[in-house]
Amino acid sequence: MADANRLFQVEIITPERVFYTGEATMIEFTTTEGDIGVYKHHIPLTAVLSPGIVTITEENGAKKAAVHSGFAEILGDKVTLLAEIAEWPEEIDKNRAEEAKMRAERRLKVKEAGLDVKRAEIALKKALVRIDVAK
Prior knowledge:
Layout: E1 8-13, E2 18-24, E3 26-31, E4 34-38, E5 45-49, E6 52-58, E7 61-75, E8 78-87, H1 94-110, H2 117-134
Parallel strand pairs: 1-8
Antiparallel strand pairs: 1-2, 3-4, 3-6, 5-7, 6-7, 7-8
Helix pairs in contact: 1-2
């Protein structure tokens, strides 16, 4: 059993639902500045989320989810992720993610006039995250 002094509150909220609420010993996620791991008593911080895998380490193991864009608020005893989209592995349609990956790669390769490259790159990243989490 983990030491209760190591536990802190974690919430992941999307516009559609409270995706996760519970206690963790660590949470890892991706920001626009890179990956971050947070333990209890982390310095207060606000960060912008990038598409990536969130790993929530609980007393009994770890849970992984795909999170796409949003904000993170880190306080000494609570981490809140406000995400555009959050998905558990069993919620991801792997075939749809593979198709989205192929579409984004095709767009980036062909580079038609008027292509929003940044948007295509984000779509590719989201698809890759979904595929990775769904494994």
